[in-house]
Amino acid sequence: MRERLVIAIDGPAGAGKSTIAKKIAKILKLEYIDTGAMYRALTLKAIEEGVDPEDTEAILELIGSTSIYFKDNHIYLDGTRVDEEIRQNIVSRNVSKIAKIKEVREKMVELQRELAKSGSVIMDGRDIGTVVLPDANYKFFVTASVEERARRRYKELIESNQKVTYDQVLSQIKERDRIDSTREISPLQKSPDAYEIDTTNKTIEQCVDEIVDIIEGR
Ligand code: CDP
Questions:
Q1: Is the beta carbon of 35 within 6 A of some atom in ligand 1?
Q2: Any atom of ligand 1 within 6 Å of the Cβ of 172
Q3: Running along the chain, 218 residues long, what does each successive block of 10 average in pLDDT?
Q4: What is the Cα gyration radius of the chain?
Q5: 15, 98, 107, 140: most buried, per Cβ within 10 A?
Q6: Which pTM was predicted?
Q7: Are 125 and 38 in contact (CB under 8 A)?
Q8: Whose CA is nearest to atom 14 of ligand 1?
Q9: Strand ranges across the sheet with 80-81
Q10: Is the distance from the beta carbon of residue 130 to the nearest atom of ligand 1 less than 6 Å?
Protein backbone atom coordinates (compact mmCIF):
# COMPACT_ATOMS: atom_id res chain seq x y z
CA MET A 1 0.00 0.00 0.00
CA ARG A 2 1.07 3.57 -0.71
CA GLU A 3 2.26 5.60 2.23
CA ARG A 4 0.21 8.56 3.39
CA LEU A 5 0.30 11.34 0.79
CA VAL A 6 -0.07 14.97 1.91
CA ILE A 7 -0.41 17.76 -0.64
CA ALA A 8 -0.58 21.50 0.09
CA ILE A 9 -2.04 23.99 -2.40
CA ASP A 10 -1.81 27.71 -1.74
CA GLY A 11 -2.46 30.82 -3.77
CA PRO A 12 -4.49 34.03 -4.06
CA ALA A 13 -8.26 34.38 -4.56
CA GLY A 14 -9.62 33.05 -7.83
CA ALA A 15 -6.42 31.33 -8.99
CA GLY A 16 -8.28 28.05 -9.41
CA LYS A 17 -6.97 26.26 -6.31
CA SER A 18 -10.19 24.63 -5.20
CA THR A 19 -11.27 23.41 -8.66
CA ILE A 20 -7.81 21.96 -9.23
CA ALA A 21 -7.58 20.45 -5.74
CA LYS A 22 -10.98 18.73 -6.07
CA LYS A 23 -9.99 17.12 -9.36
CA ILE A 24 -6.65 15.94 -8.02
CA ALA A 25 -8.40 14.52 -4.95
CA LYS A 26 -10.57 12.43 -7.25
CA ILE A 27 -7.71 11.23 -9.46
CA LEU A 28 -5.36 10.34 -6.59
CA LYS A 29 -8.10 9.27 -4.15
CA LEU A 30 -7.29 11.82 -1.48
CA GLU A 31 -9.50 13.61 0.95
CA TYR A 32 -10.00 17.26 -0.04
CA ILE A 33 -9.99 19.89 2.71
CA ASP A 34 -10.97 23.45 1.81
CA THR A 35 -9.57 25.63 4.59
CA GLY A 36 -10.98 28.83 3.07
CA ALA A 37 -14.45 27.38 3.66
CA MET A 38 -13.70 27.28 7.39
CA TYR A 39 -12.78 30.99 7.55
CA ARG A 40 -15.82 31.70 5.37
CA ALA A 41 -18.13 29.79 7.73
CA LEU A 42 -17.01 31.83 10.73
CA THR A 43 -17.44 35.02 8.67
CA LEU A 44 -20.97 33.96 7.72
CA LYS A 45 -21.83 33.48 11.36
CA ALA A 46 -20.46 36.94 12.25
CA ILE A 47 -22.58 38.52 9.52
CA GLU A 48 -25.70 36.63 10.59
CA GLU A 49 -25.19 37.62 14.22
CA GLY A 50 -24.43 41.23 13.36
CA VAL A 51 -20.89 41.05 14.75
CA ASP A 52 -18.40 43.51 13.25
CA PRO A 53 -15.60 41.47 11.54
CA GLU A 54 -13.09 44.01 12.83
CA ASP A 55 -14.20 43.70 16.46
CA THR A 56 -11.59 41.15 17.55
CA GLU A 57 -13.02 40.60 21.01
CA ALA A 58 -16.52 39.93 19.74
CA ILE A 59 -15.18 37.55 17.06
CA LEU A 60 -13.22 35.61 19.68
CA GLU A 61 -16.31 35.30 21.80
CA LEU A 62 -18.21 34.08 18.75
CA ILE A 63 -15.62 31.44 17.86
CA GLY A 64 -15.96 29.96 21.34
CA SER A 65 -19.59 29.14 20.69
CA THR A 66 -19.26 28.03 17.06
CA SER A 67 -18.83 24.56 15.60
CA ILE A 68 -17.39 24.17 12.10
CA TYR A 69 -16.84 20.77 10.52
CA PHE A 70 -16.88 18.85 7.23
CA LYS A 71 -19.05 15.83 6.56
CA ASP A 72 -19.11 14.01 3.21
CA ASN A 73 -17.37 17.00 1.56
CA HIS A 74 -19.94 19.49 2.83
CA ILE A 75 -19.26 22.24 5.34
CA TYR A 76 -21.44 22.60 8.42
CA LEU A 77 -21.81 25.64 10.65
CA ASP A 78 -23.43 24.83 14.01
CA GLY A 79 -24.96 21.72 12.47
CA THR A 80 -26.36 23.39 9.33
CA ARG A 81 -24.95 22.80 5.85
CA VAL A 82 -23.72 26.14 4.45
CA ASP A 83 -21.91 25.29 1.16
CA GLU A 84 -23.80 27.93 -0.83
CA GLU A 85 -24.18 30.59 1.85
CA ILE A 86 -20.42 30.88 2.41
CA ARG A 87 -19.87 31.77 -1.29
CA GLN A 88 -21.98 34.94 -1.08
CA ASN A 89 -20.08 38.04 -2.07
CA ILE A 90 -20.74 39.66 1.32
CA VAL A 91 -18.78 36.79 2.90
CA SER A 92 -15.91 37.18 0.39
CA ARG A 93 -15.74 40.90 1.13
CA ASN A 94 -15.37 40.34 4.88
CA VAL A 95 -13.50 37.06 5.29
CA SER A 96 -9.95 38.46 5.16
CA LYS A 97 -10.68 40.79 8.08
CA ILE A 98 -11.54 37.79 10.25
CA ALA A 99 -8.77 35.58 8.86
CA LYS A 100 -6.10 38.01 9.97
CA ILE A 101 -6.97 37.65 13.68
CA LYS A 102 -4.22 35.67 15.42
CA GLU A 103 -6.47 33.64 17.73
CA VAL A 104 -8.83 32.78 14.88
CA ARG A 105 -5.90 31.41 12.88
CA GLU A 106 -4.57 29.41 15.82
CA LYS A 107 -7.92 27.73 16.29
CA MET A 108 -8.38 27.00 12.56
CA VAL A 109 -4.83 25.68 12.14
CA GLU A 110 -5.37 23.32 15.07
CA LEU A 111 -8.58 22.01 13.47
CA GLN A 112 -6.89 21.70 10.06
CA ARG A 113 -3.95 19.70 11.42
CA GLU A 114 -6.40 17.41 13.17
CA LEU A 115 -8.27 16.86 9.89
CA ALA A 116 -5.04 16.05 8.05
CA LYS A 117 -3.88 13.48 10.60
CA SER A 118 -5.93 10.52 9.59
CA GLY A 119 -5.05 9.79 5.97
CA SER A 120 -3.95 11.03 2.57
CA VAL A 121 -5.14 14.58 1.99
CA ILE A 122 -4.99 17.55 -0.33
CA MET A 123 -5.57 20.80 1.53
CA ASP A 124 -5.92 24.24 -0.06
CA GLY A 125 -5.62 27.71 1.43
CA ARG A 126 -3.12 30.51 1.97
CA ASP A 127 -0.71 29.13 4.59
CA ILE A 128 -0.90 25.38 4.11
CA GLY A 129 2.64 24.79 2.80
CA THR A 130 4.17 27.44 5.04
CA VAL A 131 2.39 26.92 8.38
CA VAL A 132 -0.33 24.28 8.56
CA LEU A 133 1.45 21.35 6.88
CA PRO A 134 5.11 22.34 6.46
CA ASP A 135 6.06 18.66 6.02
CA ALA A 136 3.65 18.06 3.12
CA ASN A 137 5.04 15.67 0.49
CA TYR A 138 4.24 18.14 -2.29
CA LYS A 139 3.50 21.86 -2.21
CA PHE A 140 2.03 23.94 -5.02
CA PHE A 141 1.56 27.68 -5.31
CA VAL A 142 -1.19 28.37 -7.83
CA THR A 143 -1.38 31.86 -9.34
CA ALA A 144 -2.92 33.82 -12.22
CA SER A 145 -2.98 37.49 -13.20
CA VAL A 146 -5.32 39.58 -11.06
CA GLU A 147 -7.47 40.46 -14.10
CA GLU A 148 -7.88 36.81 -15.02
CA ARG A 149 -8.76 35.91 -11.42
CA ALA A 150 -11.36 38.70 -11.30
CA ARG A 151 -12.86 37.51 -14.62
CA ARG A 152 -13.26 33.98 -13.27
CA ARG A 153 -14.79 35.13 -9.99
CA TYR A 154 -17.12 37.58 -11.80
CA LYS A 155 -18.37 34.74 -14.01
CA GLU A 156 -19.02 32.51 -10.98
CA LEU A 157 -20.93 35.23 -9.15
CA ILE A 158 -23.07 36.10 -12.18
CA GLU A 159 -23.82 32.41 -12.71
CA SER A 160 -25.05 32.18 -9.14
CA ASN A 161 -27.29 35.25 -9.70
CA GLN A 162 -25.35 37.67 -7.52
CA LYS A 163 -25.41 41.33 -8.47
CA VAL A 164 -21.89 42.66 -9.07
CA THR A 165 -19.89 44.37 -11.78
CA TYR A 166 -16.49 43.21 -13.05
CA ASP A 167 -14.86 46.35 -11.67
CA GLN A 168 -16.29 45.70 -8.19
CA VAL A 169 -14.99 42.13 -8.24
CA LEU A 170 -11.56 43.30 -9.44
CA SER A 171 -11.23 45.83 -6.65
CA GLN A 172 -12.51 43.35 -4.02
CA ILE A 173 -9.97 40.75 -5.11
CA LYS A 174 -7.16 43.33 -5.03
CA GLU A 175 -8.20 44.33 -1.52
CA ARG A 176 -8.37 40.71 -0.33
CA ASP A 177 -4.93 40.00 -1.88
CA ARG A 178 -3.58 43.04 -0.09
CA ILE A 179 -4.92 42.02 3.34
CA ASP A 180 -3.94 38.34 2.89
CA SER A 181 -0.39 39.12 1.75
CA THR A 182 0.44 41.86 4.23
CA ARG A 183 -1.10 40.49 7.43
CA GLU A 184 1.26 39.88 10.32
CA ILE A 185 0.33 36.26 11.02
CA SER A 186 1.01 33.67 8.28
CA PRO A 187 0.64 35.94 5.27
CA LEU A 188 -0.01 34.47 1.84
CA GLN A 189 3.41 33.62 0.47
CA LYS A 190 5.01 30.94 -1.64
CA SER A 191 6.88 28.37 0.39
CA PRO A 192 10.44 28.15 -1.01
CA ASP A 193 9.93 24.43 -1.72
CA ALA A 194 6.59 24.86 -3.55
CA TYR A 195 6.16 24.36 -7.29
CA GLU A 196 4.64 27.46 -8.87
CA ILE A 197 1.76 26.84 -11.29
CA ASP A 198 0.58 29.88 -13.28
CA THR A 199 -2.93 29.13 -14.53
CA THR A 200 -3.47 32.35 -16.52
CA ASN A 201 -3.30 30.88 -20.00
CA LYS A 202 -3.95 27.25 -19.16
CA THR A 203 -7.07 25.16 -18.89
CA ILE A 204 -7.91 23.49 -15.58
CA GLU A 205 -7.11 20.13 -17.18
CA GLN A 206 -3.62 21.29 -18.18
CA CYS A 207 -2.92 22.46 -14.63
CA VAL A 208 -4.25 19.24 -13.12
CA ASP A 209 -2.09 17.16 -15.51
CA GLU A 210 0.97 19.26 -14.68
CA ILE A 211 0.49 18.69 -10.95
CA VAL A 212 -0.32 14.97 -11.23
CA ASP A 213 2.78 14.48 -13.42
CA ILE A 214 4.96 16.10 -10.74
CA ILE A 215 3.45 13.94 -7.99
CA GLU A 216 3.79 10.77 -10.01
CA GLY A 217 7.34 11.72 -10.98
CA ARG A 218 6.79 11.75 -14.74
O1 CDP B 1 -11.91 30.74 -3.00
P2 CDP B 1 -11.14 31.98 -2.73
O3 CDP B 1 -9.78 31.92 -3.30
O4 CDP B 1 -11.88 33.22 -3.02
O5 CDP B 1 -10.91 32.10 -1.18
P6 CDP B 1 -10.91 30.99 -0.08
O7 CDP B 1 -9.86 29.98 -0.36
O8 CDP B 1 -12.32 30.53 0.13
O9 CDP B 1 -10.44 31.83 1.19
C10 CDP B 1 -11.18 32.92 1.66
C11 CDP B 1 -10.32 33.78 2.57
O12 CDP B 1 -10.02 33.06 3.76
C13 CDP B 1 -8.98 34.22 2.03
O14 CDP B 1 -9.06 35.41 1.27
C15 CDP B 1 -8.16 34.43 3.30
O16 CDP B 1 -8.41 35.68 3.86
C17 CDP B 1 -8.72 33.38 4.23
N18 CDP B 1 -7.90 32.15 4.30
C19 CDP B 1 -6.78 32.17 5.09
O20 CDP B 1 -6.46 33.18 5.67
N21 CDP B 1 -6.05 31.03 5.26
C22 CDP B 1 -6.38 29.90 4.64
N23 CDP B 1 -5.65 28.80 4.84
C24 CDP B 1 -7.51 29.87 3.79
C25 CDP B 1 -8.25 31.03 3.63
A1: yes
A2: no
A3: 87 94 96 97 98 96 95 94 95 95 96 93 97 97 96 93 95 94 94 96 95 92
A4: 17
A5: 140
A6: 0.93
A7: no
A8: 96
A9: 68-71, 74-77, 80-81
A10: no
